[in-house]
Amino acid sequence: MQQNRIIWNPERECAEREQMHQLQSSQLSRMIQRMWDHVPFYRNRLKEKGIEPGDIRSVDQLKDLPFTTKDDLRQNYPFGLFMVPQSEVVRIHASSGSTGKPTVVGYTRQDIDIWSEVVARSLTMAGIHSGDTIQIAYGYGPFTGGLGLHYGAEKVGATVIPISSGNTRKQLQFMTDFSATVLACTPSYAAHLGESILKEGISPAAIKLRAGVFGAEPWTNEMRKEIEKLLRIKAYDIYGLSEVIGPGVSMECECQCGSHIFEDHFIPEIIHPETLEVLPDGETGELVFTTVSKEAMPLLRYRTRDLTRLHREKCECGRTLVRMEKCLGRSDDMLIIRGVNVFPSQVESVLMEMSETSPHYQLIVRRENNLDTLEVLVEIDEKNWSDSIRELEGIKRRIEQNIKSLLGVSAIVRLVEPHSIERSEGKAKRIIDYRK
Amino acid sequence: MHIQQLSVFLEDRSGRLTGLTRILAEHDVNIIALNLAETTDYGIVRMVVGRPGLAKEVLEKAGFSIGLTDVACVNIPDEPGSLYQVLKILTEENINVDYMYAFSNRDVALAVIRTANIPAMTEVLEKRGVKLLSQCDIYQL
Lengths: 436, 141
Fold this sequence. Notes:
The complex is a heterodimer. Chain A is of the alpha/beta class. Chain A has two domains: 1-331, 3-Layer(aba) Sandwich (Rossmann fold), CATH 3.40.50.12780; 335-433, GMP Synthetase, Chain A, domain 3 (2-Layer Sandwich), CATH 3.30.300. Chain A is 31% helix and 26% strand. Chain A contains eleven helices and 23 strands. Chain A has helices spanning 10-13, 17-38, 40-48, 70-75, 109-125, 144-156, 168-177, 187-200, 221-231, 344-352, 389-407; strands at 89-95, 103-108, 133-136, 159-161, 182-185, 211-215, 234-241, 246-252, 259-261, 266-271, 285-291, 302-308, 310-311, 323-324, 329-330, 335-337, 340-342, 357-368, 371-380, 412-416, 423-424, 427-428, 431-433. Chain A has a nine-stranded mixed β-sheet with strand order 4-3-5-6-7-8-9-14-13, sandwiched between helices. A four-stranded antiparallel β-sheet of chain A has the order 10-11-12-15, with no helix packed on it. In chain A, strands 20-19-18-23 form a four-stranded mixed β-sheet. In chain A, strand 6 (211-215), helix 9 (221-231) and strand 7 form a beta-alpha-beta unit. In chain A, helix 2 (17-38) crosses helix 3 and helix 8 (187-200) packs parallel to helix 9. The longest helix of chain A has 22 residues, at 17-38. The N and C termini of chain A lie far apart (62 Å). Chain B is α+β, with helices and mostly antiparallel strands. Chain B folds into two domains: 3-69, VC0802-like (2-Layer Sandwich), CATH 3.30.2130.10; 70-140, 2-Layer Sandwich (VC0802-like). Helix content of chain B is 34%, strand content 40%. Chain B is built from five helices and seven strands, in the order βαββαβαββαβα. In chain B, strands 1, 2, 3, 4, 5, 6 and 7 form a seven-stranded antiparallel β-sheet that branches. Chain B is globular. The model of chain B has no long low-confidence stretch (mean pLDDT 91). The interface between A and B is medium-sized, with 17 and 18 residues.
């Protein structure tokens, strides 16, 4: 039997900084040349900046190159940014654009191999190996979650249950009957499955899960604790976005001290969302990726709109890969209220610590007499609410105090009925900003 | 002995209370006593009804947030001073009233009382000879 690996690709994941720098530099200059040769969009952008392919020799020059945005992808819908002919594309994924056209990405055979490799590295990071049975409850289809995890899980040799998302009853049956040891899905679905196990009265002994690989939506550390308690597992954060490759752009190791970015394939930068200047490690800003090994649809300085910071100190797990903190939110979601940056996820973490309310909330921002006001609607917990006005008012005051101390802005909290906050596609609509 | 009171969390929207009573009417649930406490944002309706289990089920199905709360329902003579006699006992025993509501219909007066510790209160009251109604008594009212 093959011995289980602790680090899937030590040569890359534990490379010395100097070695990584060289690899990134040579890959970057090769990619700029190919973009110039095959993608008119990039050639024009480079020309506008007065850059020719031969000029780029080091990854340090990344800061001089032009950005790519989601809007550029839409303008070139569907295949305008592809670098290879259709005959070399073996798969197409598309993300459900809630506004406008979907975002389309293509993969060559080699792109699929790289994707499988980075997901295999990710799963290995969570201690998953050929002895595991992994239940993949991410959606299979144009969404990258299901198939992305699938190929990586097969690569490490785990037994895959490709159940896809939904059908909770069947999920629980397969989980118990097939003794699944790993669950992969969105964190909100993991919490739902955990609650369903309790509701159905399934004995904890019948559940063999020991780890979870969760991603595709932002989640807080409080939610992690909740899921870990509900399912009695260790919950790992996998990060990715379809434009870059899908899940497996970065992954948390057992230290849970940020996600290791597979920077031999995806080079990260942090920029100031308004000045667009590169920020030093440790400072919060917008995450930008340059994919240097992708063939079908490489991206040059793609603005993810996710806000986080980077750390480069060596991790206790032995990997030298740069780490990103959990995303604080999207730059689109960030609200500026009386000059203070506020993220919906911060309100969520306040609510997750309280049992009397549900984490369903809505932020309403208004401008009254030139002053921004923040109102927070919070659904009371369906099962666990008191009919004493004194207690309800106490809860309201506590939420207001906690928001004030954590966010630094005062808010007016309003308690509302369960399920009364409008939900789109199962997710609550978080922000209503009347100032715009 | 205690009974179960139906508590409903209502947002301050027009027609909510009407909708609530319509559903009870459609399912033939009789309201024995009702109290509405309001704040600027929401209200709490507290009700003693004939069939609390059924009422909870049909109201939840209709999307209302329902809680069942244990309360004591004391039966006192409809004459001056009878409520005072009951409350005096609670004060002597250091029992704090969270909320209460009462009504009388000429032969009988009922007071619905909520305290933090319902078993302790009902034990004290029964020991002191105060008559408490059971869920069964309520159903027959």
